[in-house]
């Protein structure tokens, strides 16, 4: 059951939800703050309350799996060092891994390039009863491809319309879609990239190409702002402040809690009467 404070926080999520079909400015959204009744969330109290939130998410997932009629798709997008991997590890830890599929979309393979850009994506969407997490997604085809000049403005607009139609198809088929952009400040990204350079145990995370993309910060901002015009009531975008991991994790969990409450899965009724059965002694 949702607590009174959780209900307030869920209602306040409209602050970070992108309006349906509207163009937004990312500069209007904070990277390090979230206000509730004019006050910032307290880190210690928020972390204390997070365990109960994880238990609620686990309960909802069990109902989703048992019901087997709906599915949940979580789309994660972020700049380099934005925290996609750690988000998957921290937030999705609330779920039974048997009911979750995490998909990492990397550079398309030759067979994938021989099909339309959504071909490889559609195969990874969650079946009924399941949760799928896209760590990067079909939005790469209106972000990276656009910024690096692989597609022009007309193709970008066309691909975005295909995405809107694709997500409508999924929603019509019983898939709830939650899209999350991890909103990182330039200063925080710099700290995280430096951390990867200075800590030998994190060198494997560092990609020199990330520095080139950092130089294209404003180009990526424009691309993300256009991509978020795909926000719809059935597939909303959320601009989650990501400079502080504890705040990021809490807000994403609240977003998922709201999604589950809107889906409202339930345990199926048994086709038998439990009172008719006894467990035999052995």
From TrEMBL:
Keywords: Coiled coil, Kinase, Transferase. It holds the Pfam family PPK2. The keyword Coiled coil applies. One of its GO terms (biological process) is polyphosphate metabolic process. Residues 36-63 form a coiled coil. Residues 41-265 form the Polyphosphate kinase-2-related domain. GO terms for molecular function: polyphosphate kinase activity. The keyword Transit peptide does not apply. This is Polyphosphate kinase 2 family protein.
């Amino acid at each position: 059951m949702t607590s009174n404070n959780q209900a307030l926080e869920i209602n306040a999520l409209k602050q970070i939800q992108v309006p349906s079909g509207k163009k937004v400015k990312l500069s209007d959204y904070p990277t390090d703050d979230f206000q509730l009744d004019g006050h910032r969330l307290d880190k210690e109290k928020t972390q204390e309350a997070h365990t109960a939130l994880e238990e609620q998410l686990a309960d909802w997932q069990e109902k989703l799996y048992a019901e087997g009629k709906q599915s949940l798709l979580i789309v994660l997008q972020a700049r380099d060092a934005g925290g996609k991997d750690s988000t998957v590890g921290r937030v999705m830890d609330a779920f039974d891994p048997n009911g979750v599929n995490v998909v990492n979309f990397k550079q398309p393979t030759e067979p994938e390039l021989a099909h339309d850009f959504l071909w490889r994506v559609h195969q990874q969407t969650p079946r009924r009863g399941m949760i799928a997490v896209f760590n990067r997604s079909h939005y790469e085809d209106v972000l990276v491809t656009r910024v690096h000049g692989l597609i022009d403005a007309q193709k970008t607009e066309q691909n975005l319309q295909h995405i809107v139609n694709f997500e409508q198809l999924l929603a019509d088929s019983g898939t709830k879609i939650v899209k999350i952009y991890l909103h990182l400040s330039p200063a925080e990204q710099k700290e995280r990239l430096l951390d990867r350079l200075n800590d030998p145990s994190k060198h494997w995370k560092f990609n020199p190409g990330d520095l080139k993309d950092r130089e294209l910060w404003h180009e990526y901002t424009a691309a993300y702002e256009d991509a978020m015009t795909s926000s719809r009531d059935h597939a909303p975008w959320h601009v989650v402040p990501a400079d502080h991991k504890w705040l990021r994790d809490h807000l994403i969990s609240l977003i998922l809690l709201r999604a589950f409450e809107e889906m409202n899965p339930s345990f199926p009724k048994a086709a038998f009467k439990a009172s008719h059965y006894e467990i035999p002694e052995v």
